[in-house]
Amino acid sequence: MTTIESAPSAGADARTYEVRTFGCQMNVHDSERLSGMLDAAGYVPADPGGEGADLVVFNTCAVRENADNKLYGNLGQLAPVKAGKPGMQIAVGGCLAQKDRDTIVKKAPWVDVVFGTHNIGSLPVLLERARHNAEAQVEILESLEVFPSTLPTRRDSAAAAWVSISVGCNNTCTFCIVPSLRGKERDRRPGEILAEVEALVAEGVVEVTLLGQNVNTYGVEFGDRGAFAALLRAVGSIPGLERVRFTSPHPAAFTDDVIEAMAATPTVMPQLHMPLQSGSDRMLKEMRRSYRSKKFLGILEKVREQIPHAAISTDIIVGFPGETEEDFQGTLDVVAQARFAQAFTFQYSQRPGTPAATLPDQLPKKVVQERYERLLKLQEEISWRENQKLEGRVVELLVTESQGRKDGATTRLSGRAPDNRLVHFTVPDGADSPRPGDFATVRISYGAPHHLVADDLGSEYAVRRSPAGDAWERRQVDACGPVAPAASGGGVSLGIPVLRRG
């Protein structure tokens, strides 16, 4: 069991920290745990406008080509800062730390701690050891020490929370280094997951996102193929929880019972992120993706049959080794048929340690860039058309804290629709103004490619206060004193900090 050793107690002499996160939702979730452990050890979050933290933690990603350059660039910028700040510490964790191990300290000897993906719970101990011994501490474990969700946490949002249901991956995609860094899939027991969600709801959380490297293969470790669909139904029935999401599933393991669970459980949101990677069957085979484009499109068709308003997003890789113009056209064809609400598109980059890195026919950058731009243009057109279809629809938003749209002509707040689309909305004059975490009902007036706008100040507008809004308000009180009452006319008076608005 991990022991959390204490830094100086909270107060004027407490050490401050900052966690910088790169990568996927799993990294974001791990960073919340890192922050929670540092809080428990007596550190306090650094003031964003202050002179710099006593501890900077990098939670890294190893998937993208420039991940190394990004890390070492940041570390280089901190070297003179640390030299002028006695006692400052720097720690590097995450996937890149798991992969590079001792290389980090050799390239950046001013780093104090390097820890891996399997032992994030060791960070406070390693920091104290580095301080005591006056030398860098490198600890990389080959198997999971403590399941991340059992560690303390500091969540950025009072309304929404990540809940990890599994870690690791049993697939062997040729472009991906994650299995070698995160290990084989490990599944939590359903009772542990449900207990965590219930505890989150008791704190005011109204939305959870279930996380897994291949979230829909949940149950493989204890031999239950129907475990994920059953978990969706069970989580979705927890009293007080209003929204359930999950990411990311694998098309090869996506079964009809999951679609049925999504459709039958009102709290499971009409949203699906389904990674395509390529529309070419030949490329999918080279990638070791164990499905083909027909199966992929068939899944989308079944989802839309049972959940007509589902917003489906995807991941796509452009320029995989050996990709021909015909292969790329296959991707364009699937994208046109799929009508994705959003696509996260990536130019293929060689990652040492992956089978694809040694494949022949690595494509020239110029070719990859040209294809990438064509794909972006097509998806932009599709996203815009799909968003325009929503004009006039009435939706209930979960109001967010910091995703506002700067617009000198209007003052807007922002929220997420059930399908996870971002909506910027105007509060009518004289109407109640929601807090972050509350729900607002609005009518969509305009669909842009990447967001929706609700400026139609009709009779549909309504605010529903929620436990998440109460929790957000308590955070403000804890941080800076009592919250002033909301003023009529669409404004919110909060003192400091001020609510960031649309």
Automatic annotation (TrEMBL):
**Catalytic activity entry:** N(6)-dimethylallyladenosine(37) in tRNA + (sulfur carrier)-SH + AH2 + 2 S-adenosyl-L-methionine = 2-methylsulfanyl-N(6)-dimethylallyladenosine(37) in tRNA + (sulfur carrier)-H + 5'-deoxyadenosine + L-methionine + A + S-adenosyl-L-homocysteine + 2 H(+)
Group of enzyme by EC: transferase
Q: State a single Pfam family of this protein.
A: Radical_SAM
Where it sits in the cell: the answer is: Cytoplasm
**Alphabetical keyword list:** 4Fe-4S, Cytoplasm, Iron, Iron-sulfur, Metal-binding, S-adenosyl-L-methionine, Transferase, tRNA processing
Residues in domain Radical SAM core?
Answer: 155-386
A single Gene Ontology molecular function, please?
tRNA-2-methylthio-N(6)-dimethylallyladenosine(37) synthase activity
SMART domains for the chain: Elp3 (SM00729)
Q: Where is each TRAM domain found?
A: 388-458
Chain residues that bind [4Fe-4S] cluster 1: C24, C61, C95
Look up the record and name the cofactor or cofactors this protein needs: [4Fe-4S] cluster
Free-text comment on the cofactor: Binds 2 [4Fe-4S] clusters. One cluster is coordinated with 3 cysteines and an exchangeable S-adenosyl-L-methionine.
- Domain MTTase N-terminal as annotated: residue spans: 15-132
Q: Summarize the subunit comment.
A: Monomer.
Family the entry assigns:
Belongs to the methylthiotransferase family. MiaB subfamily.
Query: What is known about what this protein does?
Result: Catalyzes the methylthiolation of N6-(dimethylallyl)adenosine (i(6)A), leading to the formation of 2-methylthio-N6-(dimethylallyl)adenosine (ms(2)i(6)A) at position 37 in tRNAs that read codons beginning with uridine.
Q: What is this protein called?
A: tRNA-2-methylthio-N(6)-dimethylallyladenosine synthase
